[in-house]
Each structure stands twice: as structure tokens, then as C-alpha cells.
Amino acid sequence: MGVSWEDFRLVPPMAAKMVLDACGIQQPPVCERTVAGYLGLEIVEATRDDFADYAESRGHERTPAEGAEKLEACLCWAHNGDHCILVNQSRPEARLRWSIFHEIGHFLGGHTRAVDTDSTPDVRKRRDRTANKYAAELIMPRGMFLKDVQALDIGLSAVYSLEERYVSSMEATASRYAELHPDPVAIVWARPGRDTGANTLCVEYAIESRRFPARINRDTEVDLWTYVEWDSLPGGGFGTIPSSALHLSMDQVLNVQCIAPHGGYRFLLLLWPAEGGDE
Ligand SMILES: [Zn+2]
Q1: Ligand 1 centroid to 47 CA: how many Å?
Q2: Which of 124, 139, 154 is at the close of a domain?
């Protein structure tokens, strides 16, 4: 008897690998419809306004009550146990793909109605994190992605080209890049600091690769513009920054590359040790 994804459904990297292998997918972009089809999940295109009606008319027991305004996709099930994914096709492609893979993640994680009743916000948050793990493994499979990461020089241009190759969002791609990078790298999302006079950035969250020697804490205030010259590359900045400026428990000079992908309010920073850069 063969081994199937069901044997590994609770281990995202293994479940994803088995599903992708079974679908014969060997290179990006991973087709969300192929994966959904293999799992017996119908993808139903509906406008946002159609969502609730459709779910009701099909006898699905769950309607997208929460966050309907920004809803991109939701997993629904019928009385006969069939599942489908409703999608809001007006959303941008990369976002929609992520949302569909996220819903597939809920399916693989067994987040079905049987365990959904009485779920608390904490439980839902935990399930969403789990669903995101499946989504990352499916949309940017680690073996494939790692090979591509290793073929590219460290830099945000690598993130851009991976984003394009995997048809993923910038944020998801940057996270995956830092998570899987074999060298010490970190990505940071930051927004302007609370003290506008000080002109600092405030860390929203950071993801470090396994070899990055310190953790970057959220809410750290960074005086980035002392070290980074904005516009030194098209639409961004580059410089070197001492790790002390990031309040890190290490002594090293770091390269920092920085862009504002969404028009200036949030900043994406990529950090990695500068050559021979001990402080
Ligand atoms: Zn979710």
C-alpha cells in the first residue's frame, strides 16, 4: 500500500511534498487549481457579494461572516461532506493564490467544521498560522525554493525575482527567503517610529535565517537613515549598519538593503553580515 499525504497531513512540509509529487509538479509556479483538484476541492469563483448567498444556496454550513470586506477565499463544506473553496476573483493574482493555498492549508490541517464549533480567537489564530505554513510549503516548496535561493546573490533583487518566479506576494516571498536561506540573513518589516522628530523606524516583525546570529525584537527603534542612503539604488536604499544600532546581542557590521514596496509607509529591510565586518 502506498504512502499518501493523509499519513503526513499534520506535518506541513511532508504533506505538501507528497501532494506536489502526486501532482507531478516539479517547477514553479505551483498551480493552485491542480493542487485543489487533486485534493477534491472545487474552486468556485464568486464576487464578494456572492459569497454568502452562494454558501447558503449550496447548503454550506459556514458563511464568511468575519472580515467579509477583505475576504479573498474561504473553505466551505456541504452537508454531504464535500468541500470547496470560494474565491473573490477581483483580488490581485498573487494575493489570491496565497489565499487559496491558505484555505488548502486549512483543509490539509483538518480544520473542518467538526472542530470549528466554539473555536476561540486564539484557536482561530493558531489555525491561521498553521494554514500559512501549508501555504508557504505549497507555493514555495522548500527543495525547489532553496535551490533557487542558492543560485542568486543575496539581495532584494533575489526576492524580487523569486516573487516573480513563484507568483507569490512580496511579503510571503521575503519571509520564505529569510526562513530558508542557508546563510545568515534576516528580513525586517518596519514602519516610521512613533517619535517622528527622531526619524527612526520601528520594527514590526523580523524573520531570521537559522544562521543569523541574533534575534531582532519587534518594536525596536532603529535610526536607519544615519546609515542608509536612500535612493542609492532604484527606489530604495543601501548601506552598512552596526549591529548595535539594531540593539542586537552580537558585534558585527551588517549590510542593509531597504525598500518601501507599498508606497512609503512600510519598509522592507534585508540584513546580512558585511564582508569582514566585525565591529
Ligand atoms: Zn484562515
Answers
A1: 19
A2: 139
Query: Do 23 and 113 share a domain, yes or no?
Result: yes
The pLDDT assigned to 67 comes to: 44
Range of the domain at 57: 5-139
- Whether residue 148 is contained in a domain is answered as no
Domain-located, residue 278: no
- Residue 279 placed within a domain: no
| pLDDT tens digits for range 60-72 | 555 444 445 457 8
Coil, strand, or helix at residue 231? strand
Q: Ligand 1 centroid to 112 CA: how many Å?
A: 11
143 Cα–ligand 1 center, Å: 25
Query: Which of 139, 154, 180 is the last residue before a domain boundary?
Result: 139
Q: How far is the CA of 106 from the centre of ligand 1 (A)?
A: 7
pLDDT, tens only, 199-232: 789 999 999 999 999 999 999 999 998 999 887 6
pLDDT computed for residue 66 by the predictor = 46
- 233-238, Cβ contacts within 8 angstroms, sequence gap of 24 or more: 233/257, 235/259, 235/260, 236/156, 236/260
- For residue 124, report the distance from its CA to the centre of ligand 1, in Å: 7
Contact between residue 129 and residue 205 where contact means Cβ atoms under 8 Å apart: no
For ligand 1, the distance from its centroid to the CA atom of residue 176, given in whole angstroms, is 19
Ligand 1 centroid to 167 CA: how many Å?
Answer: 20
Q: Does residue 213 form part of some domain?
A: yes
Q: How far away, in angstroms, is 158 Cα from ligand 1 center?
A: 28
Instruction: Say whether 249 sits in a helix, a strand or coil.
Output: coil
What is the number of structural domains in the chain? 2
What is the signed CA dihedral for 97, 103, 106, 107, rounded to 10 degrees?
-100
How far apart are the CA of 150 and the centre of ligand 1, in A? 31
